[in-house]
Amino acid sequence: MSLPTARPRRADLAGLALSATCLVHCLALPMLLLLAPALGHWIVLPEGTHAAILTLALPAAFVAMRGGWHRHRRSAPGLVAAAGLALLALGLAAHEGWLATANASAADTLLTTLGALALAAAHLANWRLGHKG
Fold first, then answer.
1. DSSP class of residue 47?
2. Residues with Cβ within 8 Å of residue 95, at least 6 apart in sequence
3. How far apart are CA 109 and CA 22, in angstroms?
4. Cα-atom radius of gyration of the chain, to the nearest Å?
5. What are the φ and ψ backbone dihedral angles of 75, each rounded to 5 degrees?
6. Burial level of 125, CB count in 10 A (0-12/13-18/19+)?
7. Per-residue pLDDT tens over the stretch 30-40
8. Is 30 in contact with 96 (CB distance < 8 Å)?
9. Residue 37, CB half-sphere, CA atoms under 13 Å: how many?
10. What is the mean pLDDT of residues 39-62?
């Protein structure tokens, strides 16, 4: 039984939006905080931000990649999405202190940024492959 074509498309769009949210969170906010350290006292994100993003990204990626595979039969977007999700999970682990790293904050930013970029690339590739021809 195949999924309706609108559902995977919406899941790709949701995945792209969530990836962009990760990038803004991981890149723009630290840059803003570096440029204006005083703002750090007023900008506080809830503690569960990383976990919430990962929790939303998992089902969006699954629905989008499954639907995309049914349309184009290519596994590469799904594999890249899985790698991106794994990097996001490692970023969360670094953020929570579950990974033994020399600099947990840098590891969190690097892993989460790479994960968000990989996931965005997977959704974009899935979208393009699903709309060819």
1. T
2. 50, 104, 108, 112
3. 10
4. 16
5. -90, -15
6. buried
7. 565 455 444 54
8. no
9. 0
10. 79
Interatomic CA distance for residues 94 and 10, integer angstroms: 30
pLDDT band at 108 (very low <50, low <70, confident <90, very high): confident
Span 36-65, mean pLDDT?
77
Joined tokens for residue 130: 């699903």
Q: Which residue has the tokens 């999924």?
A: 3
For residue 16, CA distances in Å to 19, 93, 95 come to: 5, 22, 22
CA gap 90, 49 in Å, rounded: 14
Pick the closest to residue 83 from 111, 124, 52 (CA basis): 111
Q: Amino acid identity, residue 113?
A: T
